Amino acid sequence: MADALFGKRTDIRDAHDKYANQEVAYLLQRIEGYNGLVILATNQRGNMDDALVRRFQAIIHFPVPRPDERYQIWCKAFPSQIEIAGNIDWQQVAACYELTGARIMNVTQYCAVEALADQSLCIDFKRLEAAILREYIKEGKVV
């Protein structure tokens, strides 16, 4: 989200560019004058304004979770009210599908809503795989 507010400033070609650049400069001033902790997050660091990046005291990179970390996320993702079918092997799911924690939560929420909608309160592998594929498509990845 930070890249949306603090995107790289551009050459001024029209009034929109001028005002966009002024807004970024204003926000940079406000951050410098703020006497507190500011936390910004983005998954598009390359789109961040260089002047903003220079002002950071720390930049923390969160890589895509490894399979063992994804396994732990999957095991804790679904609410206790949702039954998990026996045909789901979380180790295999974690190893086969490289998803971030946020994307795993998107899959989880989609599956839970589907299970609530059909009143089955059960997630089987077919439903889980369809939700994962849906998430890949949203991300623009070829399946």
Lay out the secondary structure.
Blueprint: H1 2-5, H2 15-33, H3 50-55, H4 67-77, E1 83-84, H5 90-96, H6 101-117, E2 122-123, H7 125-139
Parallel strand pairs: 1-2
Helix pairs in contact: 4-5, 4-6, 6-7
Structure description:
The chain has 143 residues and is mainly α. The chain folds into two domains: 2-55, no CATH class; 67-139, Helicase, Ruva Protein, domain 3 (Orthogonal Bundle). 55% of the residues lie in helices and 3% in strands. The protein is built from seven helices and two strands, in the order ααααβααβα. Helix 4 (67-77) crosses helix 5 and helix 4 runs parallel beside helix 6. The protein is elongated, with a radius of gyration of 21 Å. The model has no long low-confidence stretch (mean pLDDT 84).
Discrete helix count? 7
> What is the radius of gyration computed over CA atoms, rounded to a whole number of angstroms?
21 Å
What would you call the shape? elongated
Indicate the mean pLDDT. 84
Order of helices and strands: HHHHEHHEH
Strand content: under 5%
Brief rundown of the structure:
The chain is mostly helical.
Keywords:
143 residues, 2 strands, Helicase, Ruva Protein, domain 3, mainly alpha, 2 domains, 3% strand
